[in-house]
Design a protein that fits this description.
The complex is a heterodimer of chains A (113) and B (111). Chain A is mostly beta strands and 113 residues long. Chain A has no helices and eleven strands. In chain A, strands 2, 4, 5, 6, 9, 10 and 11 form a seven-stranded mixed β-sheet that branches. The radius of gyration of chain A is 13 Å and the shape is globular. Chain B is mainly β. Chain B contains no helices and eleven strands. In chain B, strands 2, 4, 5, 9, 10 and 11 form a six-stranded mixed β-sheet that branches. Chain B has a five-stranded antiparallel β-sheet with strand order 1-3-8-7-6, with no helix packed on it. Chain B starts with a strand and ends with a strand. The chains are: A mainly beta (113), B mainly beta (111). Chains A and B meet through strand 5 and strand 10 of A and strand 4, strand 5 and strand 10 of B.
């Protein structure tokens, strides 16, 4: 099983809303990632969690707040987003951060209105 | 930091032809090079990968080659089929960091 499950699949939110994206994996992976992907662009790294601790934050604005409640779950809390934050948000996991296969979820298509 | 260049940005082939996509990386410490296929509306799917201690790897119609000296790696797809049409991304991982992606290649296979 190489499945990473993301919910919801689609999300429309206003600029004053608070919402959360969820990601789950049951492969025993200890590294989890959030990527942002704009149309016709490659995924851009946002955050890396290793053993449930935030290890990389790629200078992401504070309106994006990650959380790793346990080794299987990863959340991304959203608050006061801008229309330019509309994108596909991808979660991925891998056994370790060091050169191991990373598996992606199907993503959450976020639209900020 | 690591930088990954990918060419071409678009590639059109006839069914049955071969397709080659090339990537170069900048950091000689990079040690893991996966390739992902992304279909419309879906997340990237890992299709093949290679590590820095190997020069070539093959899986049915797909192969990847790595030239560490020149710092480039390539994806080869033989006997292409319409279902191979997608966006392909190369990536590189320096030990202990997450993946850095190339800009992607849109492959179109016409029957």
């Amino acid at each position: 099983d190489t499945e990473v499950t993301q919910t919801p699949k689609h999300l429309v939110m206003g600029m004053t809303n608070k919402k959360s994206l969820k990601c789950e994996q049951h492969m025993g992976h200890r590294a989890m990632y959030w990527y942002k992907q704009k149309a016709k662009k490659p995924p851009e790294l946002m955050f890396v969690y290793s053993y449930e601790k935030l290890s990389i934050n790629e200078s992401v604005p504070s309106r994006f707040s990650p959380e790793c409640p346990n080794s299987s779950l990863l959340n991304l809390h959203l608050h006061a987003l801008q229309p330019e934050d509309s994108a596909l948000y991808l979660c991925a996991s891998s056994q370790e951060t060091r050169g191991t296969e990373a598996f992606f979820g199907q993503g959450t298509r976020l639209t900020v209105v | 930091g690591e930088n990954v260049e990918q060419h071409p940005s678009t590639l059109s082939v006839q069914e049955g032809d071969s397709a080659v996509i090339k990537c170069t990386y900048s950091d000689s410490a990079s040690n893991y090079f996966p390739w992902y296929k992304q279909e419309l509306g879906k997340g990237p799917q890992l299709i093949i990968d290679i590590r820095s201690n190997v020069g070539e790897k093959k899986d049915q119609r797909i192969a990847v080659t790595l030239n560490k000296t020149a710092k480039h790696f390539s994806l080869h797809i033989t006997e292409t089929q319409p279902e191979d049409s997608a966006v392909y991304f190369c990536a590189a991982s320096v030990g202990g960091t997450a993946l850095i992606f190339g800009k992607g290649t849109t492959l179109s296979v016409s029957s």
